Amino acid sequence: MTSFRVKDRGRVKADRPVRFSFDGVAYEGCEGDTVASALLANGVHLMGRGFKYHRPRGPVTAGSEEPNALIGTSRGVGRFEPNTRATVQEIYQGLTTESQNKWPSLKFDVGAINDRLYMLFSAGFYYKTFMWPRSFWDKVYEPFIRRAAGLGKAPVDVDPDHYASRYLYCDVLIVGAGPSGLAAALAAAQTGVNVVVVDEHAEMGGSLLSEPSVGINGKAAWDWLEATLDELGRLPNVRLMTRTTAIGYYHQNMIALCQKLTDHLAELPTDAPRERMWRVRAKQVVLGQGAIERPLVFDGNDRPGVMLASAAQTYLNRYGVKVGNRPVILTSHDSAWYAAFDLADAGAKVGAIVDTRNDIQAALMQQAKARGIETLTGHTATATSGRLRVKSVRVNPVRGGRVGKARTIDCDALLMSGGWTPSLHLFSHTKGSLHWDAEENVYLPGQQTEECHIAGAGRGLWGIAAVLEDGVKAGTAAVRALGHSCDAVRFDVSDDRTGNGVTHKELATDRSPGRAKAFIDFQNDVTAKDIRLAVREGMRSIEHVKRYTTNGMATDQGKMSNMNGLMIASDALQKEAPQVGLTTFRPPYTPTTFGTFAGYHKGSHFELTRKTPIDSWAEEHGAAFEPVALWRRAWYFPKAGETMHMAVSRECKATRESIGIFDASTLGKIEVSGPDAVEFMNRMYTNPWTKLAPGRCRYGLLLGEDGFIRDDGVIGRMRDDLFHVTTTTGGAARVLNMMEDYLQTEWPDLKVWLTSTTEEWATIALNGPNARKLLAPLVEGVDISADAFPHMSVAECTVAGFSSRLFRISFTGELGFEVNVPARHGRALWKKLMQAGRQYDICPYGTETMHVLRAEKGYIIIGQDTDGTVTPQDAGIGWAIGKAKPDFVGKRSLSRPDIVARDRKHLVGLLTDDPKIVLEEGAQIVTDPNQPLPMKMIGHVTSSYWSEALGRSIAMALVAGGHEKMDQTLYIPMPGHTVAAKVTGTVFYDPAGERLKVE
Amino acid sequence: MNAHVTPNSPGPVSLTIVPPFARFSLRIAAASVEAASKAFGLELPVKIGQGQAKDGRAAWCLGPDEWLLHAVETETVQIMEAFARFRPETPHSLTLISDREITIAMEGARAAELLSVACPIDLARIHPGMAKRTVFDSAQVVLLRDGPDHFRLEVWRSFFPHVHELLQIANRELASGY
Amino acid sequence: MLLIHCPYCDDTLPELEFAYAGEAHIARPSDPSELSDEEWRDFLFIRSNARGVHAERWRHIHGCARYFNALRDTVSDKFLRTYKAGEPRPDTSVQEAVK
After folding, report:
1. Which tens digit of pLDDT belongs to each residue from A818-867?
2. Which of B61, B66, B121, B163 to mutate to test the interface with C (most CBs of C within 10 A)?
3. What is the value of ipTM here, to two decimals?
4. Spatial distance between the Cα atoms of A289 and A246, rounded to a whole number of angstroms
5. Confidence of residue B9 (pLDDT cuts 50, 70, 90)
6. Which pLDDT score is estimated for A22?
7. Residue in A753, A820, A829 to test binding to B, most B beta-carbons within 10 Å
8. Minimum mean pLDDT among A149-153, A553-557, B93-97: which range?
9. Touching check for A45 and chain C: CB below 8 Å?
10. CB contact at 8 A, A723 and A717
């Protein structure tokens, strides 16, 4: 294979060969190469296939804007990544890569038949082709679209890599370490402020890396660059970050950076993250993102070998790779002339420089002549040839608007330049306005919304001298805004390659434009014809054109295609470009992995999981867990061979017959303290609190101001001025927030303070006829006999030697106690109670048994039996309302017309006719199962269980007018059968409450 | 009072769990703060974020009417009684929260960097002696800075496993050099 | 992610420490029983939904825990200023002039 490596050119380390593979073929590159540069050095241009027509494609660029050369990279299980740009991926020993979007092979791809069916795949073809017949959708259209859609293969294995994140504050953030960014850094850093410079490339320098011939301050460009980076690198106030892309610019100068740490390494270091997301807050931002070259739009501008002139220059000067031996240059800008000169100087035989312009600087013409390069001015390109690589280009003179006689020039590379587009993506994220420069046909930064400064080619400047000077200006302005003054930094630039150019819509042609495959969006295969068709079919805004044609929707987000698309749309619409608009650039700037965004949130760290002090005991004893809010709670404790149903039935039975023990630590707890505590409680909760004596507790019901149930819990009065409030597990934070809201903003005069003590206490519930027998010997400081410590009592005492707040309450209908001890003792107390309870066959139970036991008693669970639209009356707990109180949160709403309406959904019991059937929670309820579809649904099942105590199923449901439907039979239609059930009250077990009275 | 007990995690920052001590949340009107200072035997700072420490007792102002108090555990009852004595004439709330949080001490030249993996605030503005309630990877925490390279993180007990594990992951990451 | 100035802490801090709490300056009537159904409905549900300067409540929930008020431009998402709960809404015409 011929080598296209040029001796003594480029920055790659020629003496350090790196072996890698592409589509199963081994190649050798050099350290410092990208996959694209290494393949080009091996003479390989064909790197991919177009998305729609499967046309052969090679790299168009040498950077992150690459639309064509997308590859899959892999390094072992779970480390496969699709859609990586070959122009960005650095090679390392053993890197495995493959091409995409082809079958069976890249060189022979069956899908290329689409190229012959060109006419079928015009703009909006998805909308047009797949319209009818309707019956074709499921079987034909959808499978077809699904197979055709998507780019690359999605990885299937779990990603074993580690991803990281970091917050960073700095004074000045400089995005882009090209000449303007580095000049800004030099200016800003001398004041001592914190400066961060980021660049997406593996090394800093930007355009200087591709332009070694320029001289700065008497040094060759690369010597100056090295000295500058060394100087900046040694300053303690400067941080330089390579392989780091600023992917998004958010409010108040927050910039998100994606730093790639290991994708270039042959060996993965232990514990090193693959990528790190930096959330940087900068006082000042300098954007030195440079400009992106525009392709020219003409028939056949997508063949492998056709690429941007600047890319060829980069491959030559930075990577030491000649992209062809017989290149032809096709341009409308001076910059491409230098690519021709550099390639000629490197030994390439430049076929011609074809320029669309008639008048060219004399100096350029002279230099071309000196190198013996033919120049064709005032020409257009009308076609190319070559299947897997460009072979020739057809050019014609244009005189007075008329396209003259064609001539064909042989070539193995066609290097195009359609001018330059300032890279303003990040600036656009800030919603800064853009200003249309009609002279240069570019958008430039206008009104700013953030503290940022744009420097260099990003605001349309051209030439190293101008860009360096502008960088200094931006850096100086940034530090001045921070109140620093800095010395002027001056640069003396020699051999600067200044120039200018013009931009075009599609190039003039002597052939039918309707047959031209003149590409605008290479990745999505959108042509100039598609844009014009979209306009003809009524699209007026560029946003519509974009969606109709998919122009700019590729992974390069329109970096290549937006401006060409806009020029053609504006021509078709006969309107100025600003009136046609510009589609919005959105983060991220370049494709970014999900891993970067997820950071540490994967595996056991996917989400914060709260654990109780007794969680470890439950885990050791084989508990099954369920998530409740952020908590994980013991769900049930299966013994060997037990199903969930068996375990729960056993736990229920043990609790009703002897004693069960339950970890209730997750219950929210709030200390309400202060002389106005009782007044505050009266205003917040529906119940009256004034007469509740210290040492007693009461069920409390909390409504929203709209009258709907928000939360509930047992509340103990510890002192006249101190309440121990409990909330639901999931409601703890919400209730405290709501209480603070009223206290701080409505009643700031009340002397009350709220403190969350949820986590101060571990809470253990003991329920069952033997609960007192177990507990009494362990309690000191209070008599817990039935008379001395009646139901709904609370006391401070010690239990098993631990200081404790002891409640006598029940959420099961059995004799019950809840012991609160300082959290660190929770596990020790639990073990002591288990030990002491052995004689009663004490049974640990989980949340499922708790749910069954409470449902047997008709106790509601907020959020399960209520849904934010249920009033106390609806839930059948109107008794909890202190009717004599003048006001409380939600009281006024309880008399609103909608709230007193009779057809509201009420909470009722449901008993299935067949006692063995356990209804499904969420199942819909109807009155007549034989009515035509769609049936009128009058409610749904909220809670449903097998009741071991009753030997049958039980359920609760919200049913329209349910309180007036007692004893009626309702129906629950299920797939394949319908269940009949009778409406009942909600208390299924021990309705008289006798079991609480155990002596 | 903050002797370190657990072995150091691998990584440049030493992470240790501080053994139990007395911790209170004090809520009192700013105008009455003098009475609280007297009861606690330490002049309470009045600017949010500021701290004060003397003779094994420490106090930080976390809100306009909120202070975090630390003391030796054996003085718990004594402190509660001292506050109870003036409660009738100067209403306030003193809540024992010794067990609500677990405190992680961090020491090392890269301690601030370690915190920056999940703490969104500008740590350079938290000076030694200060305290700040903030978040660490979605868990609410109180961050105390004892010195340039020494922090304590008070974490609600149930959040502790998550926070501690993440700190260890990040500590290993720092050690990796990447 | 926004930076928000807490008027109690007198410090500007990341949005992650704060929670939004709805429109500001909607006081709970001192005696709700005196309100007609329509008036009570308006208190409960009717909000200004301003395009432009909006007075709204925030809570420094993971900081000093105080509720406070803010004027924010709902178009640009920028805070014009924040102020303590109970203070009157600042004159926005002045704010506009400052802009």
Report:
1. 999 999 999 999 999 999 999 999 999 999 999 999 999 999 999 999 99
2. B121
3. 0.96
4. 10
5. low
6. 97
7. A753
8. A149-153
9. no
10. yes
User: What's the CATH code of the domain at C65?
Assistant: 3.30.2270.10
Interface contact B156, partner A, CB < 8 A: yes
Nearest to A767 by CA among A666, A654, A873: A654
Strands of the sheet containing A753-756, edge to edge, are A697-703, A709-719, A722-727, A668-673, A753-756
Nearest to C62 among B49, B64, B140 (CB): B140
**Domain-by-domain residue ranges, chain B?**
14-19+100-176, 22-96
Query: Whole-angstrom Cα distance, residue A188 to residue A119?
Result: 56
- Domain limits, chain A: 163-291+422-486, 295-415, 518-588
Count how many residues are written for chain A.
Answer: 999
Return the CA Rg of chain B. 17
Provide the strand spans (E) within A161-204: 163-175, 195-198
Cα separation, A419 vs A427, in Å, equals: 21
**Residue whose entry in the numeric block shows the structure tokens 């708790």:** A850
Please tell me the distance from the alpha carbon of residue A325 to that of residue A302, in angstroms, as a whole number: 19
Quick check: helix, strand or coil at residue A173? Answer: strand
Question: Which pLDDT score is estimated for A514?
Answer: 84
pLDDT for the residue numbered A54: 86
Buried b (16+ CB within 10 A) or exposed e, A707-729: bbbbbbbbbbbbeebbbbbbbbb
Q: What is the token pair recorded at A523? A: 């990745």
DSSP state letters, B70-129:
EE-GGGHHHHHHHHHHHTTTS--EEEE-TTTEEEEEEESTTHHHHHTTT--S-GGGS-TT
Nearest Cα to Cα of residue B71 among B40, B114, B112: B40
Give buried/exposed letters for A134-153 (b at 16+ CB in 10 A, else e).
eeeeeeebeeeeeeeeebbe
Residues 30-69 of C with CB under 8 A from A: 31-33, 35, 37, 40-41, 44, 57, 59, 61, 65-67
Which tokens in the block code for residue A558?
């329109």
Smallest CA-to-CA distance from A318 within A589, A27, A63 is with A63
- Determine whether the interchain pair C16/B120 forms a contact, defined as Cβ–Cβ distance below 8 Å: yes
Q: Which CATH superfamily is domain A295-415 in?
A: FAD/NAD(P)-binding domain (3.50.50.60)
Confidence of residue A84 (pLDDT cuts 50, 70, 90): very high
The answer to whether A613 contacts chain B (CB < 8 Å) is yes
Helix (H) or strand (E) holding A897: helix A897-900
Amino acid identity of residue A300, one-letter, is G
Per CATH, the number for A163-291+422-486 is 3.50.50.60
Q: What is the pLDDT of residues B66-83, one digit of tens each?
A: 999 999 999 999 999 999
Are A458 and A288 in contact by the 8 Å Cβ rule? The answer is yes
- Subunits in contact with chain A (3 or more CB pairs closer than 8 Å): B, C
Q: Are strands A327-331 and C3-6 parallel, antiparallel or unpaired?
A: unpaired
Number of domains chain C contains: 1
Cβ–Cβ < 8 Å for B159, B139? yes
**In the CATH hierarchy, which fold is given to the domain comprising B14-19+100-176?**
Gyrase A; domain 2 (3.30.1360)
Tell me: pLDDT of B2 over 50: no
A367: its two tokens: 């230099």
How is domain A518-588 classified at the CATH fold level?
Arc Repressor Mutant, subunit A (1.10.10)
A277 backbone dihedrals φ, ψ, rounded to 5°: -90, 125
Q: How many C-beta atoms surround the C-beta of residue A940 within 10 A?
A: 18
- Rounded distance between C-alpha atoms, residue A417 and residue A439, angstroms: 18
Residue A605 has pLDDT above 70, yes or no: yes
CATH (residue range B22-96) = 3.30.70.1520
